[in-house]
Amino acid sequence: MSINKLIIDTLRPLGLDVRYRVYSGSNSTYITFFELNNMDDDYSDGENETEVHSLQIDLWSKNDVTQLKKNIKQALKSKFEDVTYQDLYENDTKIFHIAFRCYFYEEKESELID
Question: What is the pTM of this model?
Fold first, then answer.
């Protein structure tokens, strides 16, 4: 499973450009994302059964994003856990910046032993 593809597919219906880390397009409203942390969890017999992806999804816009941030939060909650956001404003560039944070718990497939 590609976590990047999952994020893009989850946010695609919103009609915004969604890019991993860096956006180089010309739209005034867009989304970038990256993985903040990745850790193993749920150990059994010395092996982890879950991989935890800690993610940040950033909405950037020169326009009012009040409704858009609600739509993004709703979309993220359909696939991810513990969705929160911080409402920021970048004074130097005059851009609204909404930093969403969430988790994805990926269960590892068990290996069959003959």
Answer: 0.86
